[in-house]
Fold this sequence. Notes:
mainly alpha
Amino acid sequence: MNIITLSILVGLSIVAIIVLTSRFKLNVFVALFLVSLFLAFTTLPSKSIVSVLKDGFGSTMASIGFLIILGTIIGIALDKAGGALSIAKYILSKTGEKRSAAALGITGFITGLPNFCDSGFIILSGLCRSLSAKSGLSRPFMATVLATSLYSVHCLIPPHPGALAAAGIMNVNIGHLIIIGIIFAIPGALIAFFWSKWISKANRFTPSSDGDIFTDYGELPSVFRSFLPIVAPLLLITLRSLLMIKTGDNRGLIAEIIIIVGEPIFALTIGAVLALTLLNKSKNTLNDIFKESLEKAGPILIITAAGGMFGAVIKATGTGETLGKALSEANMGLLAPFIIAVIMKTAQGSSTVAIITTASFVSQMLPALGLDSETGRLFTMLAIGSGSMIVSHANDSYFWVISNFSEIDSKDTLKVYSTSTIVMGTFIFALVWLTSVFVL
Length: 440
C-alpha cells in the first residue's frame, strides 16, 4: 500500500475518533478500539494485527497503570479527610481575604498536582463559592481561577494520565517532565488569572452568596500532614531524576536509597500511605477509599491503554515518519505537535485523548522534526500539553463540571473560562518555543 493511501486511512481514523466521541457521544474506549481495528485490518499484514494491538495496549498499561491508581487514591483520600480544604485555609490565612482569588489559584495548583482537574474542581467548588461571597469577587472569575490552575498541571505534569501515557509513548523522563512542566505551568496559570480578571470586570459579573465552607465541613487535618501526600512523592521523584544525572558507582548509600524510593511507583505509594493516615483507619473507611479509587481509575486506565493501542497501529503503518519528513521540510518543529494537539482537543473535547493521540502520531515524526533527543522529546511533550488546553468548550466534560458546580451559565463559562484556556495554552506554547530556541 502506497504512503498516500496509508496517510489518508490514518487521517480518516483520527477524524473517525473525533466524530464518534463528539458527534455520536460513543464511549471513548469503544471508539478507539473500533478505529484501531479498522486501521489495523486495512493497513497491516494479517499475521501482525493481534500482536500490534496487544503490545500497544499492554505496554501502555504497564507503564502508567500503577501510577494512575496510586494518584487516584491520594486525591480521594485528601478529599475525604478534608486535606485540600486544610491547604486552602492555610494559604488564605497568608494571603488574606482581599487576595482570596490568588489563594484559590495557589490552592488549585498545589492540590491539582495529584488530583484530576474535574475531581479537584468538585472538591474545591464549595470553597470557590464561599470565597466569592466573602471577598465580593465575581463567581465566574473565581471559578475560572480555580479551573485554570487545576487545568495547567492536568495537561502538563504527571501523574495525570495524558502526560504519563505520552511520556511513556515518547520515552520522556517523568522526573524531568514534572520539574520543567511545573516551571511552565506557573506562568500559564498566572496569565489565565489576569485574563479572567480583566474579562470578568468587563462583563460586570456578580459575587456568590454562599456561606462559609470551612465551618460547614468541621475539623480539618493539620496543614503539614495535608501537604505531605502531595509534596513527598513529587520531591522524591524530582530528587531521583537529579541524582540519576550523576552516573557511576560513587553516589553513596543515601543517594542510592533515594533513587530506589524515588521511582514513581514507590514514591506515589508513599504518598498514598501518607494520605490514608489522614483518615479514620477503620477497615470500612479504607476499603471505601480503595473501591472508589479503583472505580474512578478503571475507565481512565482502559481509555489510556486503548489510546496506546491506537498509537501502536499508527506507528506500525510508518506514516508518522513520512509526515515528519514533510513537516520538517516545512520547518515547523514544535509547531507541528502543538497544532495537532489543538485540533484534537478542540474537536473531541478530552485533553487526555488529545495528548495520547497526538503523542502516538508525533512519536514517529521526531527524528525528521529534529526533536529525537532527550531534550527534544521533553519539549515536544510540553508543546503537546499546551496544545491540549485549547479550546475547552461545550464538548469537554470539564467545561460542564465548572459550569454546573459553580452554578454559572454556560455562556458566561464560555466567555471567561473557555477564552482563558486559549490564552493560557497559546502563552505556554510561546514560552516553550522561545526557550527551545536556546536549548535545542
